[in-house]
Amino acid sequence: MMDCGKKEEAGPSHGGVTWDKRKEEEDGESEEDDHHQDPSAAATSFIPGPLLSLKDQIEKDKEDESLRRWKEKLLGCLESDLDGQMEPEVKFHSVGILSSDFGEINTPLPIKEEQSNYVLFTLREGSEYRLKLTFSVLHNIVSGLAYTNIVWKAGLQVDQSKGMLGTFAPHREPYIHMLEEETTPSGALARGTYTAKLKFMDDDKRCHLELNYSFEISKAR
Fold it and tell me: Where is the composition biased (Basic and acidic residues) (predicted)?
């Protein structure tokens, strides 16, 4: 589930693929006709361009004022904010838990190693909750940011969930993203303390965060 309406998303950071899309649409339909005739040939012949910094991508079309302004609007930042670094960085500021039991609890990130064994939150059995993430994207576009969340109890894996956050461009304001709503299990065996690992990776297999945490499920009132 996407919840990034406050900010526009951007495409991959490979040169020529993201920013030149609008101009490619003006080149006529001859190439499109060829692709429709033989889709497999189009797929096998596509070679992504080299990874470019956003600064380089903006400077490519610096003489086109309207296109430059469009890029800045998409990015939500100005050229002066870009440092030319190739690799994107996702900086997570906090992880929150939202539940009808207690409202909202937010924990600043990163969590210290000694805190990973502390119970960050307690949920009642059979209750609904959602995780809330606040993060920033720096330097370049991050493509296909996804998460996995693995949960253990007494050393045994009891749950695993995964999902896609999306593709995000650098922006002055942090992104806020809500993960899918989940329901805690019920019953005497479900109660107790759990450990979990929340991990975020992008399409290029960069790991931007690996968070170990603990939570508790208590008896319903």
Answer: 1-11
Residues contacting residue 210 through CB under 8 Å, at least 6 positions apart: 197, 198, 199, 200
Q: Give the H or E element holding residue 132.
A: strand 128-138
Same domain? 95 vs 200: yes
* 47-86 pLDDT per residue, tens: 444 556 666 665 666 677 776 666 666 665 545 455 667 7
Check if the beta carbon of residue 121 is closer than 8 Å to that of residue 153.
no
Domains contained in the chain, number:
2
Task: Indicate if 111 and 202 belong to the same structural domain.
Answer: yes
The partner residues of 151 in beta bridges, in order of sequence, read: 159, 196
Tell me the residue range of the domain where 165 lies: 89-218
For 101-125, write each residue's pLDDT tens digit. 888 999 999 887 777 678 889 999 9
Residue 201 maps to a domain: yes
Q: Is the pLDDT at 94 greater than 90, yes or no?
A: yes
Residue 9 Cα distances to 73, 132, 214, 216, angstroms: 11, 18, 32, 35
Q: Are strands 182-183 and 175-178 parallel, antiparallel or unpaired?
A: unpaired
182 and 96 in a common domain: yes
Pair 110, 209 in one domain: yes
The reply to whether 58 and 114 lie within a common domain is no
**Quick one: pLDDT at residue 112?**
77
